[in-house]
What does this fold into?
Amino acid sequence: MYLYLNGEFVQSEAARISPYDHGFLYGLGLFETFRTYNGHPFLLDDHLDRLKEGLDTLNINFAINRKHILNITKKLLQLNSFDDAYCRLNISAGIDEIGFRTSSYEEPTVILFQKSLPKRNTLTEKRAAILKLNRNTPETGVRLKSHHYLNNIAAKRELGSATDIEGIFLTEQGFVAEGITSNIFWVKGDILFTPTVETGILNGITRQYIIKLAKSLQISVQVGEYRENDLLEADEIFFTNSIQEIVPVCEVNGKPYIGKQGTYANRLQSVYNKHKDKLFTIREIKGEGHIEHKN
It folds into this structure.
């Protein structure tokens, strides 16, 4: 398989990075994952915008350009003979001496990986479990999609090797946060609920997309701090992420839910399917509805 590394397309077995890269030594690195659909990188602009904000926080200088990343993505699809692909764009601080650095990093390590993905035609549901392990707090003002994933890995180990179950983090204060690799939504009555970013969650690109899409469909959305019982009393629950899209929940801690028969998950996914080989940014969605921020 080919990947892109610092300006070159190389076989993955031949790829090398320095042990002095501060992404390796100190975790100073970020990544974005996105999918291509018929060669189109869905919501690429939004992923690159979030990446740029994170790089500014880590003081890593890298000029992000949609055309450049798009060309790399398409070239890798060609080299790897992929139709659709999972893409991970990874940028770490780059090489420096051992020790903390306060000045900016000017020569980051840039990698774009891909792996093949099958076409997704129907919703795939999962079970869920409330984790005993709490969601840790962000290391900066907002949670970055960074190399610091021990909290997620420890949570995955808590669940074991099953692939059809997603863990749900609560914060230390007992508020519903997010999944191990996803954001979470639920429906009660005719309102779509999701935790606020003030709980310390990652502000997922698909999360942002679903909120905007729901508003455009005149679905009322409430964003706030919610307890476990608020979630468990839901009529419908689903996870979201950029690779798995919308994932309905059929069970939480043994309690059954409507799963892939859910009205809201299916309605949102049907529009998602129309958008995914066209949109570069959430800003292209037209129409506004109601969103309430719960204090």
Summary: The mean pLDDT is 95.
